[in-house]
Amino acid sequence: MNRRRHANIVPVAALVRWVVVAFFLGTAGLSYVYFKNQMQTTGNEIRSLESQLASLTTQDDTVRAQIDRLSSHSYLQRRLAEGFIQLTPITDDCIVRVHPGSRTAAAATDGIDDVQPVSNRVVAQ
């Protein structure tokens, strides 16, 4: 009687082994699906960014062509003739003249420079 009681025991070692194999295969399958989904999502994002880049490049080329057209000498001359652009003459007090040979020996030793600063300096924005 005692022999029969031990013969009906569930094989725990084999059951645990199959549970571990099933868990490993399930994890591998889910990882495969996750990575394929991530690859698809990343590919769509890259495609979208590339189309945005192409659009921005086209816009940039258009704007550069417009800048070239609007800053051309003939266009500016025409706008000046129309009176749209108002120019004022440059006065002598706004001009800095540099004469490389005009420094005297005394001025060179004293540190006095012949260059005068510009009075209407434009501040960069």
State the main characteristics.
mainly alpha; single chain; 125 residues; 65% helix
Textual characterization of the structure:
- The protein has 125 residues and is an all-alpha fold.
- It has a domain of 85 residues.
- Helices cover 65% and strands 0% of the residues.
- The protein is elongated.
- The mean pLDDT is 83.
Overall shape: it is elongated
Order of helices and strands: HHHH
The parts where pLDDT drops under 50 for at least 5 residues are none
DSSP strand count: 0
Overall pLDDT: 83
**Helical content, roughly?**
55-70%
What distance lies between the first and last C-alpha atoms, to the nearest angstrom? 100 Å
Radius of gyration: 41 Å
Characterize the main sheet. none
Helix and strand content put the structural class at: mainly alpha
Strand content: under 5%
Per DSSP, the total helix count is 4
Quick structural gist:
Helix content is 65%, strand content 0%. The protein has helices at 2-7, 12-70, 73-82, 105-110.
Describe how the helices and strands are arranged.
Elements: H1 2-7, H2 12-70, H3 73-82, H4 105-110
